[in-house]
Amino acid sequence: MTRCISLVALMIAVLVAGCSAQSKSLRRVKVFTSAATFGKNDTVGLGSTCDSSGNIYVSIVDPATHEVRPPLMFDGEGQLRVKFVSPHLHYLTSILLPFGLAPRGGLAVAERDSPNVRVVTFAADGEYESEVILSGPLFTPYQVAVFPSGTLLLSGSADGRKDRLFTAIYEKTGGFIKELILDGDAEIDRAVEIGDSRFAWSPGEGDRAISSGKAHVGDDGNVYLLRSTSPANVYVISPSGVVVRRLTVEPVTVGDMPLDMQLSKGRLAIGFDGWLGTRSAGTPTLVVVDAVSGERLQVFDKGIGIFGLARVSCYRADSGTFTYLGMTDSKQIETILASE
Q1: What is the largest distance, in Å, between two alpha-carbon atoms of the chain?
Q2: 176-181 and 164-170 as β-strands: parallel, antiparallel, unpaired?
Q3: Whole-number Å distance between alpha carbons of 338 and 331
Q4: Which residues does 261 contact at the CB level (< 8 Å), separation at least 6?
Q5: Dihedral sign, Cα of residue 61, residue 62, residue 64, residue 69
Q6: Residue 179 and residue 16: Cα distance in Å, rounded?
Q7: Cα separations in angstroms, 126 against 56, 72, 121, 284
Q8: Rg from Cα positions in the chain
Q9: Which residues partner with 3 through β-bridges?
């Protein structure tokens, strides 16, 4: 059942423009290079994350071939350890394989082979464990998150004549519970319909607000869902589908878009960059905010450029370190540990 969620009483909208956090520089602490090598066109995909042991989960993609590839796990020293290969890999109708950490370790991966949308769960060693087919409306998933109870949140693009944002809660068995109508999504849908270049590839097609979005489960048991808009909007959603609050995070440079988000110990690290229509501008900044109040705690706008096209793949608030993942000219994964 579709339910329009009013955020008037439930959300805390926090605007962090004009905060006094001073700009700082990030520096390389350690750099690791993988023994594994990849194809000449390969690059690090969107949606990387890490677990409490420092293992990093990521997809490697070839934009030229659109080949469906499984998510990979690299250890804290940048070495490839696990491949999460679905038994359905060669039958999928979408190259998108969004993933999230499973509550007991391992990975949950969302797949689509029309007309099915499923979530496949793997053990930490990459072994296939189980799967559920989702009931309810058809859509293409871009984010998946698993609450501690096993309840699922998925967000993506609904089927139809034009792209439309879709977010829903599912039982751990795949049963559809309800769709969430998030405040602000209707405006994005209208912008995509007219071909607004901030979001759409062409009128009614493509939506970077969702394709560059992120979803992570916090220590509080809620899902933090990022819409890639400027300023960034982060919806904090409970297992029952209640929007607990909404955080609005301003970039350092007006108009920059959020391309990465990591969550640690009640803090959000959001990577921003300018968007030139088909690629980032190469002038990244990193903003750390309190995940409850939205208060800006740290700003890094110096030193990040040396990481090139690397993406923020892990954040450890206890040590103040950030892990960036990129691809070297020799097509090896480069893991960069950085701090203030």
Answers
A1: 53
A2: antiparallel
A3: 21
A4: 214, 216, 224, 226, 232, 234, 268, 269, 270, 271, 312
A5: negative
A6: 29
A7: 14, 9, 9, 33
A8: 19
A9: 180
How far is the first Cα of the chain from the last one, in angstroms, to the nearest whole number?
Answer: 47
Give the separation between CA 103 and CA 100, rounded to whole angstroms: 9
Where would I find the H helices in the chain? 185-193, 208-211
Per-residue pLDDT of the chain (340 residues; tens, 9 = 90+): 444 444 433 344 444 334 557 888 999 999 999 999 999 999 888 789 999 999 999 999 888 887 889 999 999 999 999 999 999 998 887 788 999 999 999 999 999 988 899 999 999 999 999 999 999 999 999 999 999 999 999 999 998 656 789 999 999 999 999 999 999 888 888 877 776 666 665 565 566 777 789 999 999 999 999 998 889 999 999 999 999 999 999 999 888 989 899 999 999 999 998 865 555 667 889 999 999 999 999 999 887 776 766 689 999 999 999 999 989 999 999 999 999 8
Q: CA 52, CA 103: separation in Å to the nearest integer? A: 12
Q: 60 near 43, Cβ under 8 Å?
A: yes
DSSP string, 283-325: --EEEEEETTT--EEEEEEESGGGGTT-EEEEEETTTTEEEEE
| 262-265 long-range contacts, CB within 8 A, separation 24+ | 262/49, 262/50, 262/216, 262/312, 262/313, 262/314, 262/315, 262/322, 263/216, 263/218, 263/224, 263/291, 263/315, 264/315, 264/316, 264/317, 264/318, 265/219, 265/317, 265/318
Handedness of CA 178, 183, 186, 188 (dihedral sign): negative
| Closest of 286, 281, 326, 289 to residue 303, by C-alpha | 286
Q: What is the β-pairing status of strands 164-170 and 107-113?
A: unpaired
CA distance 88 to 52: 29
For the entire predicted model, the pTM comes to: 0.90
In our burial notation (b when 16+ CB lie closer than 10 A, e otherwise), range 234-246 reads bbbbbbebebebb
| CATH T-level assignment (fold) for domain 2-339 | Neuraminidase (2.120.10)
Q: Residue 112: name the closest of 81, 148, 138, 87 by CA.
A: 138
